[in-house]
Structure to design on (118 residues):
């Protein structure tokens, strides 16, 4: 019987969900993997096809995405497709919404100021 290995994290690495999500999304390969999974479930080999990377390298990227809750693994007879998970992205979008409102209000005020100067 296999026991699960504890996942390794860097000492001092952030553990709050938002920071873990940002860290996972910081890498362009992981963002590309998520973009592919947004079109539908895929196996590791299907995800590896567009990249010049080994299967172990893609698997390491997928583990980072899984730890962030952005990707999950499912069993479908003989293969284990990966699937995108929306909850962390929804939480990230909610966090960004406050900043989006701030910038929209700031740009509206700037428009008003520029209009009054004409």
């Amino acid at each position: 019987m296999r026991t699960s290995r504890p996942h390794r994290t860097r000492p001092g690495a952030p553990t709050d969900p938002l920071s873990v999500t940002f860290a996972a999304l910081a890498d362009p390969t992981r963002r590309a993997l998520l973009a592919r999974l947004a079109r539908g479930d895929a196996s590791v080999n299907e995800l590896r096809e567009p990249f010049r990377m080994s299967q172990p390298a893609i698997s390491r990227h997928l583990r980072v995405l899984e730890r962030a809750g952005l990707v999950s693994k499912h069993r479908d007879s003989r293969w284990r497709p990966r699937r995108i998970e929306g909850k962390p992205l929804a939480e990230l979008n909610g966090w960004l919404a406050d900043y989006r409102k701030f910038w929209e209000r700031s740009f509206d005020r700037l428009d008003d100021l520029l209009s009054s100067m004409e």
Q: What stands out?
A: Confidence is low (pLDDT under 50) at residues 1-6. The two ends are 76 Å apart (CA to CA). The CA atoms of residues 52 and 58 lie 10 Å apart.
